[in-house]
């Protein structure tokens, strides 16, 4: 109780210092911080859409753009959005079930994808919230529109009428080049990956450190901890379908054949290449949407997008982290209970608290001081 009280007072002091005008605390021992800052050091910062030419394009060949928000030029977030994944004629079809350019499986162009369109200045994109650990950071927002988790480098003809450009790695590294060019004095770079975007986040952390060797680079990947290291998936999808294995720099695949190069190894390869990288992840213990795409490589029915029956998602998450750390690479982790899914674009970003530690406080410590201890739910249901 005393420790909880000290934490509450500490957060309140920081909130007041940041100009917070409203704090709501509810009973039952759970604090839901609804904080609104009345000032920021960069009140005029705005999103700028930047079309990246050259070889950059979305899955249907349409133009590819990033969104850049200039605030503090010495602290920059590279935000890798999700966008879904695909690898066959059905999942990669250019159909729209809802927003234009998006199917049930993935976004195949950018008609509906941007920080303003999607998030309406909520969650991590609320730059007037004094509790936001990235409130004054510059942002480069990279949309996923190629169905390959920002990893692909291949053109695939799935039928006579469907050719898909899995071009995510070309697009993503062009965004990294812009970051290095426009923020050459960046002292802190935080690579944040959301859902499918978090799959490639550690690799992009290593690539960012290659380009900006004097910067402290932190990686925060959210909601892909349950993706397995399955040899068939590694070969058939990552290598053959997406062309990712051959596109990577040498350090990313060093010592690994294509069948051995799975999603958990992205973390260990990046950490071994750049020992100063701060690597971290977040997962809900039983997110029903976190790994539905790879049901064909787990037990259960591979023909739909339902959660895998009889699969213990939390056990996979914990085993993956253990395998990564067995290579000598540290992954700082925050595991929350339940079946949540959305994080960055919702106010839950500020409300999540496990074992008395708020996620936003944990992230603040991760990026500004000594990395905090892991947070793991006790009762994770």
Structure in words:
This protein is an alpha/beta fold and 381 residues long. It folds into 2 domains: 1-39, no CATH class; 43-376, Alpha/Beta hydrolase fold, catalytic domain (Rossmann fold), CATH 3.40.50. 28% of the residues lie in helices and 19% in strands. It is built from 12 helices and 13 strands. The strands form 3 sheets. The chain has a 9-stranded mixed β-sheet, with helices on both faces. It has a two-stranded antiparallel ribbon with strand order 5-6. Strand 3 (72-80), helix 2 and strand 4 form a beta-alpha-beta unit. Helix 3 runs parallel beside helix 5 (201-211) and helix 9 packs parallel to helix 10 (313-325). The two termini are 24 Å apart. Residues 1-39 and 299-308 have low confidence and may be disordered. Pfam families: PAE (PF03283). The chain crosses the membrane at residues 15-34. Keywords: Membrane, Transmembrane, Transmembrane helix. InterPro entries: AB_hydrolase_fold (IPR029058), PAE/NOTUM (IPR004963). GO terms for molecular function: hydrolase activity.
Q: Indicate the radius of gyration in whole angstroms.
A: 20 Å
CATH superfamily of the largest domain: Alpha/Beta hydrolase fold, catalytic domain
For the sheet with most strands, the description reads:
9 strands, mixed
User: Approximately how much helix is present in the residues?
Assistant: 25-40%
Separation, N- and C-terminal Cα atoms: 24 Å
In DSSP terms (H or I, runs of 4 or more residues), the helix count works out at 12
List the helices and strands in order: HEEEHEEEHEHHEHHHHEHEHEEHE
- What percent of residues are in strands? 15-25%
- The average pLDDT score comes to 87
What is the CATH first-level class name of the largest domain? Alpha Beta
- Major β-sheet strand ordering: 1-2-4-3-7-8-9-10-13
**SSE class:** alpha/beta
Judging from the principal axes of the Cα atoms, what is the shape?
A: globular
Low-confidence stretches: 1-39, 299-308
Number of strands: 13
Could you tell me the CATH topology label of the largest domain. Rossmann fold
Q: At CATH's second level, what is the architecture of the largest domain?
A: 3-Layer(aba) Sandwich
Can you tell me the number of structural domains?
2
